[in-house]
Amino acid sequence: MEKKFATAISVIFQPIFVPLYSLIILFHAETFITYGVQPEVRKFIFLITFLNTIILPIGVFYYFYRTKLIDSFHMHTAKERSLPFLTTIVFHMSTFYMFSKAPMPSLFPNLILGAAFSVAVAFVINLKWKVSIHMLGMGGIVGTILGLALRYQVNATELIMALVVVSGIVGYSRLKLDAHTPLQVYVGFVLGTLILTGSVILL
Prior knowledge:
This protein has 203 residues and is mainly α. It is built from nine helices and no strands. Helix 2 runs parallel beside helix 7, helix 5 (78-101) runs antiparallel to helix 6 and helix 7 (133-152) packs parallel to helix 9 (182-202). The radius of gyration is 16 Å and the shape is globular. The termini are far apart.
């Protein structure tokens, strides 16, 4: 039963869904983002994010799978992860380019740039070691909200704590499935949090 729960959590919080989850949280948080972005711009942001960070990458990953470049969508080994990482970076950077040319707050291209950088860091680490990408993504969500709270002096303590709890559940699931060691889980979460917090505050 616990393994089934851990598997379900791992699927729901696949890193590929993280940018979309972050947008949903941002547009429902009580900040200027909630009210300061026109509905048409919101639709554009959601559409491009959905296409470039979920649909198109899944299509490419499926091609990798069919051509035996990866053995499964779980990508357990470091070798299997390299191509998907590079693919993700390319799609993130194309999203960043489109966002930077569109009339929207700089926060959104900065977040995508931060996400691309976090994947790039994971790619480099992956050459020698295996870090938890699930936790990198969860740390990214926490870092996004933390960065907003620090930059715009917004009280988001309850939301941040809730996200930390969810991140803990995701981390537990990865450990339960023997996908990572505790250190790989912690390092992924800390890196994701630091990189996305920095992308909000510094960029």
